[in-house]
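User: Some background: our group keeps a shared notebook of sequences we're curious about, and every so often someone picks one and asks for a predicted structure to add to the entry. Today it's my turn. The entry only has the sequence so far, pasted here. Could you supply the structure so I can complete it?
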Amino acid sequence: MSLNALLVARDASARQVVCAALDDLRITPEICQSGADALELLAVQHYSGLVVDFGLPGAANVVRMARMAPPQRRPVIFALVGLHDDVADTFQCGANFVLYKPLVMDQIARSLRAGRAFMRPDRRRSARQQTESLVYLRFGDLCPTPALVLDLNERGLSVQASEPLPPTRIPLRFIIPGTEFLVEGRGDVIWADDSGRAGILFTELPASSRKQLKLWVSKRAKKQASSNVSVKPTKSRTIAVRPS
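Assistant: Of course. Here's the predicted structure to add to the notebook entry:
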């Protein structure tokens, strides 16, 4: 299987240097120019490596999201930083290697070569998580917080965030996995742990959203039932919800 890497950077010269170094190591690059787009890509695609320019807004969230992936889907993370940036913060976010700007080809090549030994192949046909999507949660006047959807049903969803979530009612929005339907509404955080995992019970959803969720759950159940005809059943994971 081949190796691939997601490059998140706007600076054209930086992208050119990094892509050239990746090509030399036979690592296929994919370019993304915003933190928001990177979060969406990381939710649905496996990358062997992740190169993030910390000069971009939301760069730290991109790295934290990548670190939340299961070990078999966790990329090796390279952070592009300026000479005066706080490197300690970069490592605390989860970066494995630091590349200093302005970028020098020899330095980039050495770091990428070292990281390559820890990269996992792009196994596009390997088993995926039950659902792979992002949900955006808004707490007060803060910017929306992205979290990875772990499980989803008609009543709520379980998520993995980069930090513990408070027990409160929050606005939320997400795209139903495998569709283009956007769900917007409110939910109650009914349980949460110190690792950032939480369960959210839907409290306010438009009728159209509930209809689409019901349809999605029904189709998914039929697909699983069909596959279980020839495959030994496995335990499915569901979220715990309290009666409303």
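Suggested note for the entry: Helices lie at 12-24, 35-44, 59-67, 87-93, 105-116, 207-227. The longest strand covers residues 182-192.
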